[in-house]
Specification:
Blueprint lengths: L7 H27 L5 H9 L18 H13 L6 H16 L2 H13 L4 E4 L15 E5 L2 E12 L6 E8 L10 E6 L5 E6 L9 E11 L4 E2 L5 H37 L11 H29 L3 H29 L13 H11 L4 H12 L7
Parallel strand pairs: 1-4, 2-4
Antiparallel strand pairs: 2-3, 3-7, 4-5, 5-8, 6-7
Bound molecules: flavin-adenine dinucleotide (FAD).
Length: about 375
């Protein structure tokens, strides 16, 4: 297994991205969120440096690497306090799906722009009446001549205000009930009949979430990515990178919170020694560090399997990595807030807002319970309750 020890190239990428992250850091994020703006400056610079498209093919302007490299980018930006959530979506899901299943025209139209960050694509699968059960999605595409007419509703779709298009998961009219036979459509955000309504989230993040209402959105035949019949295989080509990248997002955030807590615990003294000398403070921080490191190992394994083309093996590992990272992140943030005592809840120290942000990694893109279900059924062979 080559992933156990990080290669020199990966180490170099890690430290270069960390340096970029440090130049922006948490203050940049806090300031930009307060202004209600997206993280455009960081996104643009990361794009120019080639970090947003490290996973995309070189012939389309990408770095020719894989999810292993892209996860390093997101983890390091997160560890610096300024994660770019749309990395999970635009290059990781949409870029991957288009580069694996898109037509030549779709590739040349989208990939160079997704790679340098000049265009951005959101991803929409979640529906109000389906939630974790994607087999219940009802967004339906019907043929009208050679065009498609797409109708449905989506919720919690991230970054639609920043996106030029959304990769929408729907079904064709012929396959609109029963087990999901998904079809993926590139839907421009300025299309007629496409409506986005912001959802008021308790999240201190630059990326907003939206409800989408699609009312007979007319799309040309070539809005369909890949094969109408390729179904779940094609969808999972995008969902495994999403899980791996969510793990990277969680590990980055956990590392950021932990670093703040360690810095504080080294200095803060209310008895004879700094609070970090008390094992009640030190040990949970050490445990949080161990849990984050273990989660990263699983994330690296998942990325390695995925990049090697083992979609099935990557599926199990990506789920486990997302689970481990989400749990490690929630615990690290909780312990970091606690370590700072009252300061853990002040705006000045900026950790309290991570309590809700960390929960995202437990819920999305697939909840903790659905991963435990997956492992119970797929890995352990236990029966299903639903
Ligand atoms: C910040 C944020 C950003 C998001 N961005 C996107 C995006 O860009 N695109 C997109 O498509 N979606 C996005 N989502 C949606 C996300 O993927 C869903 O919230 C997630 O899949 C869970 O679906 P749900 O919220 O409908 O919860 P539900 O499915 O209603 O689940 C609610 C609870 O019930 C539990 N549960 C459900 N079924 C079972 C079961 N069989 N066994 C045990 N427990 C069960 C779940 O674990 C959960 O705790 C985002 C969500 C958030 C919070």
């Amino acid at each position: 297994m080559t992933t156990l020890i990080e290669s020199e190239e990966h180490k170099a990428l890690r430290s270069a991205v960390a340096a970029l992250g440090k130049r922006y850091g948490r203050d940049y994020l806090t300031r930009t969120v307060a202004e209600g703006k997206p993280l455009t400056e960081l996104w643009t610079e990361a794009g120019k440096l080639g970090y947003l498209g490290v996973n995309l093919p070189e012939e389309y302007g990408g770095g020719g690497g894989g999810i292993a490299e892209l996860s390093i980018v997101l983890e390091e930006l997160g560890a610096a306090g300024s994660p770019l959530l749309m990395l999970v979506v635009s290059p990781a899901i949409c870029g991957t799906v288009i580069s694996r299943f898109g037509t030549e025209d779709q590739k040349s139209r989208w990939l160079p722009a997704l790679a340098d960050g000049t265009r951005l694509m959101a991803f929409g699968i979640t529906e109000p009446d389906a939630g974790s059960n994607s087999h219940r999605i009802t967004t339906t595409a019907r043929k009208d001549g050679t065009d498609w007419l797409l109708t449905g509703r989506k919720v919690f779709i991230s970054g639609v205000d920043m996106a030029d298009a959304v990769l929408i998961v729907g079904r064709t009219e012929d396959a609109c009930t029963g087990r999901l036979k998904p079809c993926l459509f590139i839907v421009p955000t300025d299309a007629e009949g496409f409506q986005k309504n912001p959802i008021d989230m308790e999240l201190n993040a630059a990326e907003k979430q939206f409800e989408l209402v699609l009312d007979d959105v007319r799309l040309p035949a070539d809005a369909l990515v890949g094969d109408e019949d390729a179904g779940l295989l094609q969808l999972f080509a995008g969902l495994n990178p999403e899980r791996i990248m969510t793990a990277a997002f969680a590990i980055g955030m956990g590392r950021y919170a932990l670093a703040k807590a360690i810095e504080y615990a080294r200095d803060r003294t209310v008895w004879k020694a700094p609070i970090g000398a008390h094992q009640a403070i030190a040990h949970p921080l050490a445990q949080a560090h161990i849990d984050l490191e273990l989660a990263r190992l699983m994330m690296q394994k998942a990325a390695h399997l995925y990049d090697a083309g083992d979609d099935i093996g990557a599926g199990e590992a990506a789920n486990m990595a997302k689970y481990a990272a989400g749990e490690a992140c929630v615990k690290a943030v909780d312990q970091a807030v606690h370590t700072l005592g009252g300061n853990g809840l002040t705006r000045e120290f900026g950790l309290a807002s991570l309590i809700t942000a960390a929960r995202v990694a437990r819920i999305a893109p697939v909840s903790r319970e659905m991963i435990l279900n997956y492992v119970s059924h797929q890995t352990l062979g236990l029966p299903k309750s639903y």
